[in-house]
Amino acid sequence: MTLPMxxxxxxxxxxxxxxxxxxxxxxxxxxxxxGSSTRGEVFQRAHPERFFQMGIAEQNMLGxxxxxxxxxxxxxxxxxxxxxxxxxxxxxxxxxxxxxxxxKITAGYSGLFTGRAGKTHQVVDDISIMRAMPNMVVxxxxxxxxxxxxxxxxxxxxxxxxxxxxxxxxxxxxxxxxTFQFGAAVVLREGSDVTLISTGAETPRVVDAAxxxxxxxxxxxxxxxxxxxxxxxxxxxxxxxxxxxxVTIEEHTVIGGLGGAVAETLSEHxxxxxxxxxxxxxxxxxxSNDDLLQTYGLSADRVADRVATLMTSx
Amino acid sequence: MVTPGEPVGDDVARLEELARRIRVExxxxxxxxxxxxxxxxxxxxxxxxxxYFHELRVRPEEPGWADRDRFVLSKGHASVGLxxxxxxxxxxxxxxxxxxxxxxxxxxxxxxxxxLPGLDMSTGSLGLGISAAVGIALGSRTLDRTNRTYxxxxxxxxQEGSVWEAAFVAARYGLDQLVAIVDHNRLQQxxxxxxxxxxxxxxxxxxxxxxxxxxxxxxxIEIDGHSMAGILDALTQARAGDGRPIAIIATTVKGRGVSFxxxxxxxxxxxxxxxxxxxxMAGLGETVEATEEAAR
Lengths: 314, 296
Fold this sequence. Notes:
The complex is a heterodimer.
Chain A: E1 5-8, H1 9-23, E2 27-31, H2 35-38, H3 40-46, E3 51-53, H4 58-70, E4 74-80, H5 81-86, H6 89-97, E5 104-108, H7 126-132, E6 137-139, H8 144-156, E7 161-164, E8 169-171, E9 186-189, E10 194-198, H9 202-215, E11 220-224, E12 227-229, H10 233-243, E13 246-253, H11 258-269, E14 274-279, H12 289-295, H13 300-313
Helix pairs in contact in A: 1-3, 1-8, 4-6, 9-13, 10-11
Chain B: H1 11-33, H2 38-55, E1 70-73, H3 79-89, H4 129-142, E2 149-154, H5 161-172, E3 178-184, E4 192-194, E5 196-201, H6 208-215, E6 219-224, H7 228-239, E7 246-251, H8 274-283, H9 288-295
Parallel strand pairs in B: 1-2, 2-3, 3-7, 6-7
Antiparallel strand pairs in B: 4-5
């Protein structure tokens, strides 16, 4: 009864930005020598005159993107989170976020799944960092369908956007009736025993975890938060009210990410007992995806076990 | 007004007078507001004069004109020099200079394009502006625009690694409508101590910047950054594109025009007191009283 696998977000990224560029001549792509990994190569084949290889020089790449945006282009970034966010953070802050330039920081290889690249490539704190930056919005889609919608939305949004993408195939969650709404969280499952709040590719695993919990007699409300900033305060408050016990789950550090956003929201608007599941305050490591999910307790079965335990100890 | 790129002739005297007036406004702004980077603003003054009063195709009355030439002050801390230039060029009233770096001012300590029309990029963290300038030049070319892009860097700023990332990419894309000017005043905020605590060694050896920019594939022009004729000539040379971006290494004197600040690293960011202010104004051929009168 687990959700089926969908297309990898990187494939959706390559195809969707290419399609967007078919209709909008302002869209360009800047690549940090990783187009063969991010699938920026699809864009390059379709729009070679608008694909710019920036080489292994990501600080400059983000600065170039700012300059291009200032003359009216809409740059999409093609690299990994480690090199799209962490390496060029000062360029993002000074040249993109503060002047509110129209750059789309579309970063692949987020979280634990980095093709076994390990701790350097596994950025576990990007949501915290980007969420704290003024003028930046942070979006973390759950599956292939939502990724396509988020990318289409981003082209029409005037301003800097951080979109957190996953390298590998994720579970397919949303059918064709789903519409991504910027700033809106979405209830995926009703339940009154516990409220599970998640984001990104962790959400399909949480949906599976809720089904596992249901077999044990625990009915979980599941709230998916694709837009982490600005966060959907009323949806989080309402979801918390359904059960009066909240657990956040994210493939990211428990410090300052989705869990932080939910804790801030609830403490100010509706104090509710809550716990955070995520990567503890540690760096990543090399391993297979399955081993990583097991080790950090983020697979559906491990999430179900941890939520059940938290409920008994809360 | 002389047409950009045309022979300059008597324009040099006009521009030199404008540069003097810009220096007067720099000194007055720093003294009156009690803040600002004096040394680097004075060293860049002649270059900014040549750009804004001769070279750049801009419309102060229409700062957002899409086809304008772009200018990025990568050494964003020397904002007072740029603001004085923009004020005299007619972008905003000269009197507004006295709001510099105060609450609500459009003249932020470091340039903020969201506040002041006429600024083509927000800068302030060193080594960043040149990347934006590369993006402006590459983006403008992608959009089939004919505008040119100018970026002013400090020589100390060239210690930032991202400058060389930008230099590499600019050459790789053959951006010959991009001109980087290095204000080579040979001093930085603190630098390397030389002969005693008040002496500072130049960060680069003579010729080092030329060699570096040339090695990165740029066409290098070396000039005296205080010779107006030399600056104009270099900017004219830079117009003839040969597929390479252009680096103008302009050797300058930090604090130029203010005797006690010239060549003194301490004046990187220091405010003249009343006595120093009077001395500086006199040296610039201005009485303090006349300056006050002009401000009204």
